Amino acid sequence: MRYILSIIAATVLFASATAQSDTTQVVNAQSEQILLDNDHLWTLANQAYIDGNFAQALQNYSAIESRGYYSARLYYNMGNAYFKGGNLGKAILYYNRALVASPTMDDARYNLEIAEAQTMDKIAVVPQFFLKRWMRSLRSAMSCTAWSVISLALLAFAFALLLIFLLGSRLPVRKIGFYGTIISALLFVATTAFAISARNTILNREQAIVMSSAISVKASPDSDATDLFVLHEGTKVTITSEVEGWSEITIADGKKGWTEMSHLERI
Prior knowledge:
Layout: H1 2-50, H2 54-66, H3 72-84, H4 88-101, H5 106-116, H6 130-139, H7 144-167, H8 171-204, E1 207-210, E2 214-218, E3 227-232, E4 236-243, E5 246-250, E6 256-260, E7 264-266
Antiparallel strand pairs: 1-4, 1-7, 2-3, 4-5, 5-6
Helix pairs in contact: 1-2, 2-3, 3-4, 3-5, 4-5, 7-8
């Protein structure tokens, strides 16, 4: 009886392992097929863009995006296709998304400036304290991943220098280890803060682009509330609060007001 049970158990385990192997093979095959399909769509989209068929290019780019795949290059190409197709709001939206994915993408930044120059709203930016402006510029110099890698490297370097300080037999060597540890630790804290800030920018998605041709920004989240000012397609805003289909927004010059969420699309 015990022998029969052992045979049954072994058979069940073998069948389970075989099924798992087959499932893994199916998943891998499906993943490979999706990648091949995305490559095909990418090629078709690029060719359609070259041929001037921007609607077809966007259809193929959007199909890739709808599958959960994204990259700075995909967003940049979509921004270009929207711009060529005359959709200024979407172009600015996707150029901004490209820069969130890759802050050092100069082509996206240049095209964004061209697109923003065509918007109707010329909003004066509130001057920032130079140190804050410099820190923000430095943080935007690299992506979240790059800052994270540098942060981890500095942490490892700090530990190595700490060991030199603790185990060094000569005073000059120990001094190098001591001061090097302090400097590396400070740089680690700074780069970690940059990485967290870059990550929060991606996750929080507080900034948005006006998608409608013109919207009235109101004093309260009510369609009958007083109109404060008007914004047009392509203007970037910061969402500070949301209430039942309404968003409280702030624009570059510091003005605040409420507008319906349907008029905006988050970056």
